């Protein structure tokens, strides 16, 4: 429809379908606009990176805090929630500059559902059996 200059507004709590069909989204919670924009741009800003290093020093941890909003270290494994505009390349540069070496580096792009939960709280609509199901919200 966009190719023909048309738009449709869809309100749904099935965020996987919204992600598959829409190029722009708006997340609304209790009548308040929480986020809106191009889906790719919104999800691009929410990368999650996991790395396994030969070793993790205080110097490496401090370097990673420059590129991530959250750094979690368990042994030689590091989990990072990236700052807007930062990528796994920035992680690589920070670790190497601090004297670290990688065993692995994996970038995870969040899904719309993950972004929704991050912004408004609640639980996943794809919760495991026995867990509470997802709370609704709206996506355009």
What gyration radius follows from the Cα positions, in whole Å?
18 Å
- Give the distance, in angstroms, between the N- and C-terminal Cα atoms: 15 Å
Strands of the widest sheet, in order across it, are 4-5-3-6
Largest sheet: 4 strands, antiparallel
How many alpha or pi helices? 5
Report the order of strands and helices. Answer: HEEHEHEEHEHE
Overall geometric form = elongated
Low-confidence stretches: 124-140
Q: For the residues shown, what is the average pLDDT?
A: 83
Q: Got a strand count?
A: 7
Helix content: 25-40%
The structural domain count equals 2
3D architecture notes:
This protein has helices spanning 15-21, 39-44, 58-65, 88-97, 112-120; strands at 24-29, 32-38, 48-53, 68-74, 77-82, 102-108, 138-139. With 140 residues, the protein is an alpha+beta fold. Strand 1 and strand 2 (32-38) form a beta hairpin. It is 29% helix and 29% strand. Residues 124-140 have low confidence and may be disordered. The chain is elongated, with a radius of gyration of 18 Å. The longest helix has 10 residues, at 88-97.
């Amino acid at each position: 429809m966009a190719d023909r200059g048309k738009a449709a507004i869809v309100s749904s709590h099935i965020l996987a379908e919204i992600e598959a069909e829409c190029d722009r989204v708006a997340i609304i919670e209790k009548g308040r606009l929480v986020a809106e924009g191009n889906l790719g741009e919104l999800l691009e800003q929410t990368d999650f990176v996991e790395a396994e290093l030969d070793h993790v020093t205080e110097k490496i941890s401090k370097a990673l805090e420059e590129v991530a909003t959250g750094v979690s270290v368990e042994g030689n494994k590091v989990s990072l929630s990236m700052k807007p505009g930062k990528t796994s390349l920035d992680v690589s540069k920070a670790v190497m500059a601090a004297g670290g070496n990688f065993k692995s580096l994996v970038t995870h792009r969040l899904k719309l559902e993950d972004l929704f939960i991050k912004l408004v709280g609640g639980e996943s609509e794809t919760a495991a059996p026995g867990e509470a199901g997802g709370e609704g919200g709206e996506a355009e």
